[in-house]
Amino acid sequence: MTVTSTPRAVLAASFTPGGTAVPEAKRFTREVMTAWAAVSAIDAAERLAGELAEQVSGEPFEVVWIHNGESVQVEVREKIEGEGTTGPADAGTWGVTLSADTRTRWARIDLPGGEPVPSDEWLIEAANGPGWLGFLADASDLLAGTLDSAMVPAIIAQIVVPRLASWCAVYTTDHQDSGLRPAYLWHADETQIDALRERLADIQIPPDGPAVLHVGEWQSLAFPLTARGRRLGVMCLGRRDRFPDEALQIAEDLSRRAALALDNARLYDQQAAANRALQRSLLPPDEPTTPGLDFHVIYEPAGETNEVGGDFYDLFPVGEGVWRFAIGDVCGTGPEAAAVTGLARHALRLLGREGYGVAAVVARLNQAILEEGERSRFLTLLHGEIRAVDDGLDISLVSAGHPEPLRLRASGAVDVVATPQPLLGVFTEVDFHEDRVRLSTGDVLLGVTDGVTERRCGGRLLDDDGGLAELLAECADLSARAVAERIRRAVQDFAPEPSADDLAILVLRAP
């Protein structure tokens, strides 16, 4: 549907034939009557427009509403041959006008106490009336509904047009001292957007205001977008007739709300970018080259929140044919969890390359977390060393408060390969010990965080009654990547809603 209008208090909309054409014509009519404050005529106008639209013979048609002060007139125009029509029941006066290629069915409704409307597209109600209070409330809801700074200018413009103005141009600035740049332009008549853009290209947009612009025949005003003492941009409005005082008050109020929404979205973008950079710094920079080892890792932070996740993983060499691996979960999210994650990952690498055994590394990491004092967080960890041997892999590992690691044999049998030991950051005197496991050719070792085992659907968890072991048993003869992807897909499919926890999956397979 394309909406067009003229400065004679005329509103028109084009419709394509089909099952939705009549309801859309009625909805358009309701919007017109609401804009013209002709509330008493809404029901009759809807029925009138519906009856006339129903008589259209299957071709595209146009519905035109004209406000004549004491009455409103609807015209339904179609390019089709034919004779005769039925008069609508709600019309005070009706008729049919024929031209060379157009039939226009029209009808008129008298308005009680009707007065001429302003000459622009939409009426301005009293600024303190319930209509405008609702408009500002709806505008606030729309602006609060996104934290995407690129979307806010578009929302601003489409709120303003056509309720306050015929067109709206939003300009933004990236920095306090940078110039304005066009962010979004909208016009009630979409065919006029390109011409308006060219005209505005020659206009000097004032950074402060409100200020009057000179844009051809339009009365144009610029409202600054300023929030928390920062200049974020300018909102420019234009209409053919004079802006009523109440419209200026509404526009000024809206500019303040829009500026606050834009500033919030920018702050969110900045925090999200910082958190993404922090999250990347907590994960391995590169995928290591591991001859003689088939491995795959999947890592997914939960949801769309603007926080750093607490799960982490690592795989790194410590000697010829020897690697260390880790998969862990720090309690909580955010900067505090990130600090413990960073401490753990770097300590594991440093101590492992210094020659400390797996159990000694875990013990020293536990002590380091405790020394963080109030800043410390609990940490569950699966840490181990892998040695390539002629017929598979020898692994020594420690499972500290972590979901139990599972081994899948080539035969399809699944067993637990580590004894549970205390999580880190709780007890000062802990004697960690290593468990040893052999992966023969085709065997798989699976380590996951609780985002897998505690995936919830109603009152059931994925790992209830050995659910994870059953999933792993179905993965015999699969590559490490295929096993990891199978587990991830099972986690996603276990419940209809998105997971609320981070997820990490580490799969090691002896080739």
From TrEMBL:
Pfam families (alphabetical)? GAF (PF01590), SpoIIE (PF07228)
User: Could you tell me which InterPro entries the record lists for this protein?
Assistant: Bact_Sigma-Reg (IPR052016), GAF (IPR003018), GAF-like_dom_sf (IPR029016), PPM-type-like_dom_sf (IPR036457), PPM-type_phosphatase-like_dom (IPR001932)
Q: Does the keyword Nucleotidyltransferase apply?
A: no
Q: Which terms in the Gene Ontology molecular function aspect does this entry carry?
A: phosphatase activity
The PPM-type phosphatase domain covers: 293-510
Note whether Hydrolase occurs among the keywords. Answer: yes
UniProt keyword list: Hydrolase
Question: Which stretches are annotated as coiled coil?
Answer: none
Q: What is this protein called?
A: SpoIIE family protein phosphatase
Q: Which organism is it from?
A: Microbispora oryzae
